[in-house]
Design a protein that fits this description.
360 residues, mainly alpha, hpI Integrase, Chain A, three-stranded antiparallel β-sheet
């Protein structure tokens, strides 16, 4: 029920104080100079409360985007393993939209900021492409999803009304035999003692960089010849076969490991907890990697392309798309179809054997 009280200030001005009370809900109060405005607000507020919409709308007008992103960091990202990219994306959005309330962040405003990001240069000197910008938008969308479903801070997700940029099928850049030899030699000569082993693991397993850098010794099972990834990009546990040269490299590395450290590849920078125990972090190989690529005279090649190289080598050695997807940890075949042309010889051989079997 709505209650409107007429009040007169010391200056002789008349105002109308509205209180809307509904059982089980806190009282909502507002003051207006005109009675018609007071009545209209009372009617709309009471209707919204009964529909369950008012409090979400009210919260979205009080909460800023900066508050939402800060809470998302605390409630969501703090429980994820190395959410580096999401932190980068959301820190950028906080800088662009942090002072706006959630209610004031419209699809048009998001698109304006998003479009300005395309073609800009990031802190590493690389041009931000449309695929990457889609990841920025996706990260912001999940903040709104959580704010709507779990916090009651938003009544709708503006990202749902934004069309994302079209993306290419994805590049297939893999190392030639000569490039691979040069790169491994450069990694062997690197000042970083871990780089060569890390690159060997990437080439032999197709694992992502952070999947390798965050490996712990408890995840390595030499007797079974596997490494277990407990937290992956798609959220599922994945087992990486550890064979041949990669197995031997890691076995040697294990014999010379840093005692008391869980990580295979720890950083030199350590901290101590209150009890005096050393706390290690995964190593950062960015500089060492870039120096090795430059020394090997390899152009247009990123660390993630080692994953493409592993998949390409699998395809060229007769692996099916389903087998490649299983090794890389993809849930569907759509992501590995880019390697289909590399397995044409294998496919032709399979069809040839089938024809010989049925036609003689």
């Amino acid at each position: 029920m709505a209650n409107i009280q007429k009040r007169t200030t010391k200056n002789g001005e008349t105002t109308y104080r509205v209180q809307v009370r509904i059982k089980g809900r806190p009282t909502e109060t507002a003051t207006f100079k005109r009675l018609t405005d007071a009545k209209l607000w009372a009617q709309q507020t009471e209707a919204d409360i009964r529909r369950g919409q008012y409090f979400k709308t009210a919260e979205s007008k009080k909460r800023t985007m900066g508050e939402a992103i800060d809470r998302y960091f605390h409630d969501i990202l703090s429980h994820r393993k190395n959410p580096i990219n999401q932190k980068t994306y959301l820190t950028w959005w906080k800088k662009q939209l942090g002072s706006y309330t959630l209610a004031d962040v419209t699809p048009a405003l998001i698109v304006e900021k998003r479009n300005a990001l395309v073609g800009s240069t990031n802190r590493y000197g690389r041009v931000v492409g449309k695929s990457t910008v889609n990841r920025y938008t996706q990260a912001l969308g999940h903040v709104y999803t959580v704010a709507k479903k779990e916090w009651g801070w938003a009544s709708e997700n503006p990202i749902n009304n934004i069309t994302k940029f079209g993306e290419s099928r994805g590049r297939v850049r893999f190392l030639s035999d000569d490039e691979r030899a040069r790169l491994l030699a450069a990694c062997q000569d690197s000042d970083n003692p871990y780089l060569h082993t890390i690159v060997v693991l990437a080439l032999s397993t197709g694992a992502r960089k952070m999947e390798i850098l965050t490996l712990k010794w408890q995840d390595v099972h030499f007797e079974r010849g596997v490494m277990v990834l407990h937290e992956t990009k798609n959220g599922e546990r994945r087992i990486l076969p550890l064979q041949g040269y990669a197995y031997n490299r890691l076995k040697d590395h294990h014999q010379n490991r840093l005692l008391g450290c869980d990580y295979l590849f720890p950083s030199k920078i350590v901290t101590k907890n209150p009890s005096g125990q050393f706390l290690y972090q995964p190593i950062d190989i960015r500089t060492a990697w870039e120096n090795a690529v430059e020394k090997a005279s390899i152009e247009d090649f990123r660390f993630h392309d080692l994953r493409h190289s592993a998949a390409s080598y699998l395809a060229m050695n007769g692996a099916t798309l389903a087998e490649i997807a299983e090794v890389l940890g993809h849930k569907t075949l759509s992501m590995v179809k880019r390697y289909a042309h590399l397995s044409e010889a294998h496919t032709s051989a399979v069809v040839k054997r089938m024809n010989e079997g049925i036609f003689g």
